[in-house]
Specification:
The protein is an alpha/beta fold and 601 residues long. It has 21 helices and ten strands. Strand 7, helix 17 and strand 8 (539-543) form a beta-alpha-beta unit. It is elongated and about 120 Å long. The protein binds adenosine-5'-triphosphate. Keywords: ATP-binding, Membrane, Nucleotide-binding, Transmembrane, Transmembrane helix.
Length: 601
């Protein structure tokens, strides 16, 4: 991930600059304002040198009048006022642009990330992405808001200062210029190192974030297994390695600053010596030397300031690069560009036609192998099979979280790749095995199925999901806060909220993943009733782990290693499928705790 050479550094610099321009473009009025303020303040600061020259040569000479001094100081005061206004404008506008651009970048990255195919998040950890959107953009905001402003101001001072130096005294200036390469070389060398270390440093910090996120999220697991000490040690390791990288970065920067300051001040000393000799010899006036020193110090200070923020700019380039990488991440499951419209009243006919699929991380293993299934509108299908048979994979393929590699899945006769993703998913509701609730109220979570639903609709859905009663008993009813991930509700309650959400969504196609597994016998019965009501007239696919779920469905598809080995209803399969009848006999013989038995099927 670090720079592999000058070629790469060059190309990314250009890329980074180009990309930043795209984000800066909308604000060119602000940029013009900031540039004017920048030029004005630099010009005023530089003209102070000329003022000093006049003051020394005329103001303090023996024939100076008080009126002339007053006039000169009045002009000086006016310039100071102008400088103050210019500085305010520059600071305000540049910081504004910094905040605005990083806000826009944050929004752009998030907007891109939420649309990425789920497979992307298997290789890119959520904590890392989070850190990029927060830490990297914050870094960028500080850099654009202050470092860029400092760099630009000092660049102008440097250019203006050098021009005025030449005007004031070319001989001395030549001396100053000789030392420029001496200063620039270390800036480039150390700057490059700082940049690559900065990237590593940001990566390490992201690693720290990911670790914290995972431990805190699973705190009960951590404590139940007495893992606190182990985790603490592992965390210490992460933090210390981030610290070491940061320190070596700081070390490089410290060297950079030290070398630059020494060289610059050395050059100024040499110049003072040569210039002083010229004044003594009467070749130049005292005012000229004063102005010269003023400009030389200004040029030196600006080089120093630039070298100091150069490191920041390099860090920002690193951060931008990472953000751009994220922005450039390709969506492997793109929505069709010329989508086929859905019929006005979709029927919910689902066909799997010779579907082949293997996960990108395991191309050698066929997770789904030449699978054919025809699920008629309004009918129900149960997927059964041992753990790892490919049931969840099929559900993911229907939702187009992944695209099939062979064959096709058709919804109402249309290849789902030809539908717009929004259209396809608007026809589907899913009740997963582990219901996912978002931080917010119970009502918010049910409304997730249909944004904009009224309270009456939400309540009706909750009643149908047998959730109304327990929700009413919560301290704030439908407004009760469910905690992060719904932690304040029981597993069964969460499941009923998830069912209510699906009921509210009123989909054509319902995907259930053993939706009743977290319920007690009483609620299971009620939820089963609710589900039957919900399933009526809708195409339903159930991932089933227990017989109770499958005896009533129209077709049971028995999967094994991604292949469809048998299909039929319960009675038929008992006759025709050895795999199914073995499973059935295991379940009937040993009661209803069956999830483990499925594993051995
Ligand atoms: N994201 C992934 N990357 C790589 N391989 C995966 C991924 N998800 C699942 N697999 C593999 O694909 C196969 C099918 O998995 P799948 O989750 O569909 O099985 P399942 O029938 O739903 O199992 P279970 O009943 O245990 O949930 C398994 O061999 C599994 O290891």
């Amino acid at each position: 991930m670090s720079d592999s050479g000058p070629e790469r550094a060059k190309s990314t610099n250009v890329g980074v600059l180009k990309a930043m321009m795209q984000f800066l473009r909308p604000y060119y009025w602000q940029m013009i304002g900031a540039s004017i303020a920048l030029v004005c303040t630099a010009a005023i600061t530089l003209s102070i040198g000329q003022g000093l020259r006049m003051l020394v040569d005329q103001g303090f000479s023996s024939n100076a009048t008080e009126a002339a001094l007053n006039q000169a100081l009045l002009l000086f005061t006016a310039m100071i006022l102008l400088l103050a206004v210019g500085t305010f404008t520059r600071f305000y506008l540049v910081s504004w642009i910094g905040e605005r651009v990083s806000a826009d970048l944050r929004k752009a990255v998030f907007a891109h990330v939420v649309h990425l195919h789920p497979g992307y998040f298997e290789t890119n950890l959520s904590g890392e992405i989070q850190s990029r959107i927060t830490t990297d953009t914050t870094l960028l905001q500080t850099v654009i808001g202050s470092s860029v402003s400092i760099a630009l101001r000092n660049l102008l001072m440097f250019i203006g200062g050098v021009i005025l130096l030449f005007i004031t005294n070319p001989k001395l200036t030549a001396l100053v210029m000789l030392s420029v390469p001496l200063v620039v070389v270390p800036i480039i060398v150390f700057g490059r190192r700082v940049r690559s270390l900065s990237r590593t440093s940001q990566d390490k910090i992201a690693g720290v974030g990911t670790f914290v996120g995972e431990s805190v999220k699973n705190i009960k697991m951590v404590q139940a297994f007495n893992h606190q000490e182990l985790d603490r040690n592992a965390f210490d390791g992460h933090v210390e390695s981030a610290f070491r990288v940061a320190i070596s970065r700081i070390n490089q920067r410290a060297w950079l600053t030290t070398i630059v300051i020494t060289l610059v001040l050395g050059a100024v000393t040499a110049m003072l010596w040569v210039g002083g000799l010229d004044v003594l010899a009467g070749k130049i006036s005292g005012g000229e030397l004063t102005a010269f020193i003023f400009y030389a110090v200004m040029v030196a200070a600006s080089v120093g300031a630039i070298s100091e923020v150069y490191g920041d700019l390099q860090r920002a380039a690193g951060a931008t690069e990472r953000l751009l990488e994220l922005l450039a991440a390709e969506n492997l499951v793109p929505s069709s560009t010329a989508p086929v419209p859905l019929p006005a009243k979709p029927k919910g006919h689902l066909e799997f036609d010779q579907v082949c699929f293997s996960y990108p991380s395991r191309p050698e293993q066929q997770a789904i192998d030449k699978l054919c299934l025809d699920i008629k509108p309004g009918s129900s299908l149960a997927l059964v099979g041992s753990s790892g048979a490919g049931k969840s994979t099929l559900v993911d393929l229907i939702l187009r979280f992944y695209d099939v590699q062979g064959g096709a899945i058709r919804f109402d006769g249309i290849d789902i790749r030809d539908l717009s993703l929004d259209d396809l998913r608007s026809q589907i509701a899913i009740v997963p095995q582990q219901p996912v609730l978002f931080t917010g109220s119970v009502a918010d979570n049910i409304r997730y199925g249909k944004p904009g639903a009224t309270m009456a609709e939400i309540e009706a859905a909750a009643r149908k999901a047998y959730a109304h009663e327990f929700i009413e008993r919560l301290s704030d009813g439908y407004d009760s806060f469910v905690g992060e991930g719904g932690i304040r509700l029981s597993g069964g309650q969460r499941q009923r909220v998830a069912i209510a959400r699906a009921i509210l969504a009123d989909p054509t196609l319902l995907l259930l993943d053993e939706a009743t597994s977290a319920l007690d016998a009483e609620s299971e019965y009620q939820v089963q009733q609710a589900l039957e009501l919900l399933m009526k007239g809708r195409t339903t696919i159930v991932i089933a782990h227990r017989l109770a779920t499958v005896v009533d469905v129209d077709i049971i598809a028995v999967l094994d290693h991604g292949k469809l080995v048998d299909a039929g209803n319960h009675a038929e399969l008992l006759q025709s499928s050895p795999l199914y009848s073995r499973w059935a006999s295991l379940q009937f013989d040993e009661g209803s705790s069956s999830a483990e038995q499925m594993v051995t099927m």
